[in-house]
Amino acid sequence: MNIARAxxxxxxxxxxxxxxxxxxVKLVAWAAGPDGVGKLGQFMSLMSxxxxxxxxxxxxxxxxxxxxxxxxxxxxxxxxxxxxxxxxCAAVLMGLAALLFSRQLALWLLDDVRYESLLRVLAFxxxxxxxxxxxxxxxxxxMDVRRLVFIQVVGSAxxxxxxxxxxxxxxxxxxxxxxxxxxxxxLAIGLPAWWRSPDFRPGMLRAGFDRDMIxxxxxxxxxxxxxxLCAPLVNIAxxxxxxxxxxxxxxxxxxxxxxxSDAYLLFLTTAINVYYLPRLAAVREREELKRELAQAxxxxxxxAAVLALLxxxxxxxxTRALFSADFAAANALYGPQLIGxxxxxxSFVLSYLMLAKAMTGLFVLSEFVFAASYLGLVFVFTxxxxxxxxxxxxxxxYLFYLFFNLLVARRYLRRL
Length: 416
Fold this sequence. Notes:
It holds the Pfam family Polysacc_synt_3. Keywords: Cell membrane, Membrane, Transmembrane, Transmembrane helix. The chain has helices at residues 3-54, 59-69, 73-100, 102-110, 116-124, 126-141, 145-195, 211-246, 248-282, 286-313, 315-322, 334-356, 360-385, 389-415. It is mostly helical and 416 residues long. Helix 1 (3-54) packs across helix 3 (73-100), helix 9 packs antiparallel against helix 10 (286-313) and helix 9 (248-282) packs parallel to helix 12 (334-356).
């Protein structure tokens, strides 16, 4: 299977996830307007942050090592026992932390203590979310794309129904609650589907401790955690800055455009995750690795450019369809954002080389450096250009990141 075929298979599951996400955004836009969409972005950043921390940040590590050890049953069993134990311990710790600081988080992120109970629900859900992420990562590592797609489609359909019902009952609060409960629905669908997999063994559901495997997972998780921590935290900081400078309504316009970007890029990033990471982890020959990198660029960059162009041409219709006429001011932000999206995909193709080959120190350093540079550029450009400065900063920062990854890839291939 190549990346194009993997992308084709995963497109169905991606479309289901995309529709589910856009339904929630649409419901929030109807119920609470631009202000509510801005707060939705804050809550989703917190969920992303907790989901990665609760699982110990090892989903990508599980994908990598399952791909490597799938023909070595003894090492695979050791890896999965250690991974499950690691993830569950991290989930309990993060759940307790979220429970302890639920009031402060509600005030900081959502400006309303009434959301404290929602944060408590999120805290208690961490163990289930961590187990769901473990399950999906194992299936991904075996490259069982069809089973992964089935879980995504059914889980997303149930999530849409739940979001519609809860938002109708409780408005913005209900829509946010549906995001949490929807993660647990994926687990309810995923477990029976996994049990029927030819790769499934009962021992894969047993947690354990294996020092060697824990060290491998912990080392690799530094890369995932640095990426997962930086993105939500920086986005939270950007929203806080934009809200302080321009108000939450303006944050809603910026959030709307970034949500559209996340939505259509999901088709490409899912293909990269499903096929590219396990494939790069398994490739050891220089020429074969060069072919994989070249193939990914030839297929993904034109696809990103075409999708970005289509979104730009249809931006007014997209904004009205996904949000409402109240979001018309967001249309002026699409151009720089979409240029940044194309550059982002080009840089991601190369950055996955650092993940697959466990270049831990370099990857962690780059994540923090470019997160800091993005935040700095936002502060500077919004002072010069107002709200559009935030999307200018996004595009320029990813251009710098692309140049960095080109240097890293050339250096690695020369030394291989």
